Amino acid sequence: MQLIPRHDPHLVVRSAGGHTVAALHGELDLVLVRHLRPELDALVRESEALTVDIRRLTFCDATGLGLLAHCAGKVQARGARWRLVCDQPWILRLIRLTALCELLRPEVAAPGDQPAVRPSGPGATSPVS
Question: Which of 1, 69, 108, 127 is the Cys-Cys partner for 14 at CB 3.0 to 4.6 Å?
Answer without folding.
Answer: 1
